[in-house]
Amino acid sequence: MSRKRLEWKVGLFVLVCLLLLALLVLNFSKGLTFFTATYTVRLKTTNVGGIKREAAVLMAGVPVGNVTGAELSAEGTNVTVFLKILNRYRIHKDAIFTIDSLGFLGDQYVAIIPGRNEAPLLNDGDEVVCREPFNLQEVARSALGFIQRIDETAKKLDNALIRVEQRFLNEQTITNLSAGIANFRLVSERALATVDNLDRVIQSNTVPVSVTTSNLEQFSGQLNNLAIELQQVLAANQADWAAAVKNIESSTEMVKSLLSNVQAGKGLAGSLLNNEELSAGMSQTVSNLAVLSSNLNRHGLLWKPKKSEARPPSPLYPGRDPWR
User: Which residues are bridge partners to 59 per DSSP?
Assistant: First the structure.
């Protein structure tokens, strides 16, 4: 065997081994072989997390494709992830796409959650919206901020408790509180004693109270009967009451008319009140009648007053009557 022919055989053997190795690598890797029919789906999201090229695409936990790459938009506001899906797995547009991870710190993958399969099927090049992946760093930063806020709140509570202790839990306040509790206990004991005394009074006066209650009940019944009888009397004499009220009204009108006439000077009473001469004569007549009645009362009807003789004035008492 010539050397050149041996080299060709060795080279062919190495090439066949390399081809077999490549086929084995493609078969056992996450990628797809070149001989498998696929279609492309574009995922649009704002953050892809740490997903890498050749990451798996799982639908209900079954591998249906892989990630072929990710492209950032020109504005830098979103990312487009390209998926290669096997043709035998048809996905509807109402399916939910999300980026998840294997375990807490495992590799990330694209998870497809089927919907109701009422929307049309995805075709090659269609674009769907993908949910943002779980970002542990953002959660840690949020937790750090939350812990800081809790720490600040704890400090504020500590300061508030210190102020409360300084203002309300000092020795004087505690002494006053103890005195207040003692006073409240004393008042409660007195109130309890008062209630006991009241209970004894009520128990000892149960019979009089019941008798009084029955008497009050009878009295209220009598009052009720009296009210009924009075109502009946008023109903029976309603016409008489109306006539009496009318008579009182007419009498009032007559008195008013009489007073108005007197004030106007009409009649004897009006003349006496408004004429001074008649009023003076009437007063003199009344005075004379009073003197006459007094004399009649003292001396009788046949009494006659004696006439007094004029006597000369006494020389000893000029200007005076010595006989008086």
Answer: 62, 112
CB count within 10 Å of CB 48 equals 22
Q: What's the alpha-carbon Rg for the chain, to the nearest Å?
A: 65
How far is the C-alpha of 100 from the C-alpha of 83, rounded, in Å? Answer: 15
- 109 within 8 A of 54, measured Cβ to Cβ: no
CB contact set of 267 (below 8 Å; sequence gap of 6+): 261
* Helix pair angle (238-264, 206-236), 10° resolution: 70
Q: How far is CA 276 from CA 221, 279, 303, in A?
A: 66, 5, 35
In the three-class reduction of DSSP (H, G, I as helix; E, B as strand; rest coil), residue 48 is classed as coil
Instruction: Tell me the pLDDT of the chain averaged across its residues.
Output: 79
Question: Residue 70, exposed/middle/buried by CB under 10 A (0-12, 13-18, 19+)?
Answer: middle
**Separation between Cα atoms, residue 121 and residue 39, nearest integer Å:** 12
Characterize 157-168 residue by residue with b for buried, 16 or more Cβ atoms within 10 angstroms of its Cβ, and e for exposed.
Answer: eeeeeeeeeeee
Q: Could you tell me which residue, 167 or 245, shows the higher pLDDT?
A: 245
| Strand-strand pairing, 79-86 and 38-45 | antiparallel
Amino acid at 188: S
CA distance linking residue 246 with residue 252, whole number of Å: 10
CA distance 129 to 267: 120
80 to 39, 73, 109, 113, 128: CA distances (angstroms): 16, 7, 15, 19, 10
pTM for this structure?
0.38
Angle in degrees, CA 210, 216, 222, rounded to 5: 140
Distance from chain centroid for Cα 181:
33
What Cα–Cα distance (Å) separates residue 243 from each residue in 237, 238, 249, 298?
A: 10, 9, 10, 52
**235 three-class SS:** helix
Structure confidence by residue, pLDDT tens digits, 45-74: 888 877 888 888 888 888 899 899 888 888
